Structures are given as structure tokens and as C-alpha cells.
Give the backbone structure.
Amino acid sequence: MNLKEKEKFMARAISLAQRAKGKTAPNPCVGAVLVKEGKVVASGYHRGYGLPHAEVEVLKDARKKNIDPRECALFVTLEPCNHFGKTPPCTKAILEAGIKEVYVGALDPNPQVEGGGARFLQSKGVQVETGILQAQCTDLIRDFYLWKIEKRPFFYLKLASTLDGKIATSTGHSNWISSEKSREKVHQLRKKVQAVLVGGNTFVQDNPKLTVRKAKSKKQPLALILTRKLPAEASYYLLQQRPEETIFFTLESQENLRLQKKISELGSKVVFLPVKNNSWDLKAMATWLWNNNIFYVLVEGGGFIAQKFLEYQLADEIWLFLAPKILGDAGAISSFWGRSIKTIDEAYTLSYQKVTSCGEDLLLILKP
Amino acid sequence: MNLKEKEKFMARAISLAQRAKGKTAPNPCVGAVLVKEGKVVASGYHRGYGLPHAEVEVLKDARKKNIDPRECALFVTLEPCNHFGKTPPCTKAILEAGIKEVYVGALDPNPQVEGGGARFLQSKGVQVETGILQAQCTDLIRDFYLWKIEKRPFFYLKLASTLDGKIATSTGHSNWISSEKSREKVHQLRKKVQAVLVGGNTFVQDNPKLTVRKAKSKKQPLALILTRKLPAEASYYLLQQRPEETIFFTLESQENLRLQKKISELGSKVVFLPVKNNSWDLKAMATWLWNNNIFYVLVEGGGFIAQKFLEYQLADEIWLFLAPKILGDAGAISSFWGRSIKTIDEAYTLSYQKVTSCGEDLLLILKP
């Protein structure tokens, strides 16, 4: 088999893996195909947490189709596991099936087990080749890497700004910077996550619902409010309508300790974060969320919060809806603010991952 | 011939026209093909000011190839002229060649002659169809429309900004926001224009050359400085090295009248603009440039100048090099500033025309 063919089959495994993207947390999404005489003859992917791994699924599919796996090559996006977890190790299933040829995309991100599954198979006489479409396969499990190694959620950072980097006028007016279609897209993104986070200013000024509305969804994401000051009034939508689904992250102060009681009585949670650089320690918040099984979070700003997430290197994927509009007003509110720098070298540097049209806007997806 | 075929031939004529884009000023760029039995058999375009029109060129090509134009349909991006200018009317050439079928893209933008050429040909028994790929053909001569109807140059507005709309840090540092490749591209753009304009702040802070460097060019564009205050020192590069190619646009004041003398002695021109809304009347500047046969100008900012061009609806094409960087500092210098607005409805609204990668950056081309 030449490299081009190998990459074609791995690409097919990747597209299978993507079907369950977001549903496998905190497991990785993984796809696999069996190839015989230059053709994909069976396929499978890890469908969700606690369910069989991709390797087991593809073997099940082969059995159903009366394909003998001994005559096939296996392509799998992630190195097969070699340990007992919720399910028996996949290396065992591969050996029992009699597969002689295995192609792996990414190695296990855990440095303690990286290469272990591949080496074990090789020691049993299986021909193993790793690194087929490695960059894409690694990208597929960027979230898994964060859960496993950094023990924190994957954070999406979403913004809607003008070409001159403004998210509202100086008076706070922002309806609407982005197009109808862009706003719909945000609701599709909300559907993917377990929690939506906004800052205290947005909470007070916009009185948001933070629900999925323009897209169908069974469950609403939690509402996370990151604020210096807890709200003194109970009239806000989230406190009235969704108190049990709302969590406040704040700093300890006499005032906040006093308000905490009122908020707790309404049914919302208050979490006090340690102080770092005179502000919240966002790493501590990230750990708290992970400990509470929150694996995907959508951060919807404002500009100070957005900048803080960059500072903490917690913006894993930035979705910038760029409206073809210009305010031309330096006093309008910036998409990122809160620090003071002297040279361009101090800029946060990202890279474009994907650029698409979204109504009249552009949707720029960036990663660090 | 069905519409799809007609559009295919017109697209060919458009691509011919584009070959001379920028070289025909203040004439429009025009392309033409002759089609016989479903095939392009001859082609031509207007190669430059004072040279034969596209219709004459395509007929010349046909003669060279021994094609009889009487058996052909003519496709031309712009309505054939019906008056004596530098050359005899093209309607005459078409009739003399015996062409029976003419397809036109855009009608003449001059309301006084619009449709005249098409109607004249029809009155002589030629079958004329107008509006084939009309939007593209009209777009092709947007510059010509401005020269002819608005009697002003075509202005490109170029910026290099971060994702948060900043063109420099608060201390004025801007080397480099955009990638090497983007900076090269700017020099290619400079090559297309007859003049490059910057504001007084840029003149003082950057001491720019405003020459074409990273691309080959025979002739350097003029340097235009739009400023409230004429420079008091003669040490600037433009005044030392390119005084004859430098023009200052400013407002009348005792100080400026005094400095004008010094500047004139060095060889540079000073033009006093009328005052409008406590600033320069840019319409007057545009007229001055047109009167001086300057048809393409590249405006390179800064942010106040850029905003002023939007205010005067003089930004005909915006080239925004968007670096994947974020400063996160509200005090840094905005890409557009100088006015104060309350609601998003007051934003300048544009539309994306083209989006391409340029090194690590995106190049967004927008039009009003």
C-alpha cells in the first residue's frame, strides 16, 4: 500500500471519529476501518462514553458482514489501548481477531502509555505503522489531551466583533453586530457544550438566558458567571428561571460572602476562586469545572474575560464572527482588553484554522 | 445560444479586459471576443489610454486569422461607444465589419449615453442583447464610473491590523503586525497606483519612503501627506530624497502659510484644502487629484484618515491585512477612529469581496 492510499483510509477513519465528536467525553473520539484488497470493508467508531471502543465496533461490523479480519488491515485514528478501563484492552481484541497489519494515526497523548499499545502489538508479531495523518488525528483529540493531561475542560471562546475590533458602542449598544445567521450558529455551538460562561458586566447589562434557542437541544447548558461582585438583586432571568443551572465564580469579600447566602437560597451555586494578579485564578476555575465533569465550555465574553482566557492560555478554539462593519470610534468597547503592552512582540499569537462565510459575516476559527 | 454559453464567452471577454486593468485610465478596461459555431475565434482588449478600443482590437485579430466577422457573434464587456473620441465610434466599426449579433455586459455608465450604442446598433438591424454577466462587467469598470461620473480617483484603503482592530501599541509600535508576505503584497498594490497617501502622524512617526520596494516598478508613486500641520523640519526622507514627488494637503493657517514657503523651496507642493466639519474637505482633495490626472490612490492610514475616508464615502476598496494576533490593550491605537457613535446602526457597513491567505495573515478585500 502506498502512502496516498494509507492516508485515504485514515481520512475515512477520521470522518467516522468526527461523528461522535463531543459525545465521547471524557473519552477521545476514535474511528476505525478495515481494509481488504484496497477497499474499506468494515467501519466503526467510539459512539459515546462507556460504549465499546472503535476497534471493537469495526470488528463487530466485520462479523456482521462475514468479513474475515485476518485478511484485513486495520486503520485507527488513535493508538489502541493496552489496559483494562471500562472495557478490555483493544490490543487484545485485535490479536484475537488475528489482524496482521495495523495503521495508527496519533499515539496515546498520555506520555506514560504513549506507544505502549503499538509496541505490544509489534511484540506479538503484528506489523504496526504509526503517524498516518498524524497532525489531523492529533487535532481530533485536542480536547482529550486537555482532559487527560491538563485535567481541565476544552474552552471555546466566541466573539462577534466589527472589523475595527469592537463588540459594542461606548454606550454598550451591541444589537446587532453579527448577522442573523451568525447568531444561529452561536446557538449550534451552545448545543455542543455543557456550560456557557459570561462575565459579570454581561450578566448585569444583557440579563442573558444563555440557553440554546435557535437550534434544537434536549438539555440546556449550565450558565457560568465569572464576576468580581455577586448580584445584589434577584430579578435577573438566570436567578429567576434557571437558578439550579447557574454557577457564580467570584472572589472572597465581605460583600460577596453576604450575597452568597441570598444566591444560595435561590438555588444557585457560588464558587470562590483564589486570587491571582489581583483577579480570579482561572486555572483553579478550570480545575473545578473538570472535577465536576464539565468538559466543554463556551466562553462568550466580554472583552476583559476574553483577554483573561488568552492570558491563562485557556482559549482552545476561538470563534470570531467578523461583521463587515466599522464603528470608527476609539471609545467603543474592544473585543479584548485589560492589559497594557508596549511592543507588538507581546501580542497573543494564534493561527487561522478555518475561514467561512456566515450570512454577511466571516466566521474565523483560530487556535493558539 | 443558451445563457450558460453566453456567460462563458462573456467571462472570457472579462478576463481579457482584466489584463489591462489599471493601464487604461481614465478609459475603462474592456475586453471582447468573436464567437463562431460555439468557439472563440478572435479576441482583443483595450490595452491602454489612447490605443484602439477592444472592438477594434478583436476585429484586427479576426483579420489576422482570416476570420470573417459577418459569421461571428461579438461579446464585449462594455457597451460599444457611439461617439468620436480619441478613436472613431466602435458602433461604426461593428457595422462596417458586418457583425449581426452583439452581446453586451455593462451599459455605458454615463446616463447621457447609456444605451445609446446598443440602440444605434439595433436601429441598424443588429441583434443586441445586453446585461450578460452584468454585475461582473459593471464591477470591472467601477473605477471608470468614478472617473467619469464622480470625477475623482479610485481610492484603495489599506490597513494591517490585529484581530482586536489595533494598528499599533499605545506607544506607537507597529513593527510588525502583518507578515512578510503581506508587506510584499502592499508593495504590489503600491505599484498599481499613481499616489500613496498617509496622514501627518504617520509622516512624522514613521518617516516613510512610500516607494515600491518589494516589487519591481519603473516609476514611483507620488507621496501625498494629509496633515493639519506642515512639517517644521526638512530632515524627513520625502523632503530630502523625493521632494518633487511629494504633495502636502493641509488647512490654511498662519503657521502653515509660513511653512509652505520652506517646503516649496525644497520642491514639494502644498495644497490648501477648504475646511469642512472642522477638518479637511476630502471631496475637494479628490477633485484636485482627478484634475491632476491621478486616477488611483492608495490610502495607507492611520486610523483617523481611514475613518475620514469612510465618512466621505471615498474608500472604494478596502484591503485589510488581518494578522492572527491580539493585543488585548484598549489603549492601543485603533484601525479606525475619530468619531463618537451611540448605536450599531450608525456603523459603516461594507461587504466582503474576497478573502485569501497571505502568509500567516488573512487578506480581506471589502467594498462599500
Summary: The domain at 3-147 of chain A is CATH 3.40.140.10 (Cytidine Deaminase; domain 2). Chain A has twelve helices and 20 strands.
